Amino acid sequence: PNGAGKSTMMKIISCYIPQTEGTVKVCGYDVMDQSMEVRSRLGYLPENNPLYPEMYVREYLEFMGGIHKIPSIKSRVDEMIEQVGLTLERKKKIGALSKGYKQRVGLAQAMLHDPEVLILDEPTTGLDPNQIVEIRNLIKSIGAEKTVMLSTHIMQEVEAICDRVIIINKGGIVADDESKNLTSNNHAQVIRVEFDHQIEVNKINSIQYVNEVKRVDDNTWLIGSDSEKDIRPFIFEFAVANNLNVLTVQKEEQRLEDVFKKLTSS
Fold it and tell me: Are 24 and 91 members of one domain?
């Protein structure tokens, strides 16, 4: 959630601020004692994506390449421009670009020195739906070749991009696993049920192992349980006992967002 410490952690990893305790290493190098080694192996795109709006795209990337002392800067810049999809925008001033293209420029500068690890802090914030899809696809393609650490509080983004998920709450790690494992290991289940006529919510709450009931419309309910037991047989028993016909019954797919809410709600 917001304020959990995601951006602070990334600033520490990128040697931007020092940690108050503990040890942080990147590619085996300590961020305090070997910060130059860390920086040479790290690409970082902060949330606010600081750029020089008065510079041209190619001019800016060549400037950043000079800071990194990259040999054959022009050919490397050409490679990055093509990889992030800036070919048609390369002669424009950065200030004239849309936010989506500015993010591409930020990604290009972060990858310019060919880092082993790429850190992206809220890379799709403020983008429109089309731009979000484009940036997500770009990040996913980069992730096939490099280690990418992505910070976001948007769970749909995590599901679309990430292989491994770490959930932080109040500065501590509350989950660290593959996305598919986090959703499958969680015992919570939600059943969508439609009866043929209305029934009082307090009666549905009396079904064994049920701990949450939400009305969708007059006759349709979302019935939740934290039990490992499948509650559908108990729902059918309840329907028979109350002279209800079950028109539809469907187990809702467990989403990462549900896991996130459960782990961070306390």
Answer: yes
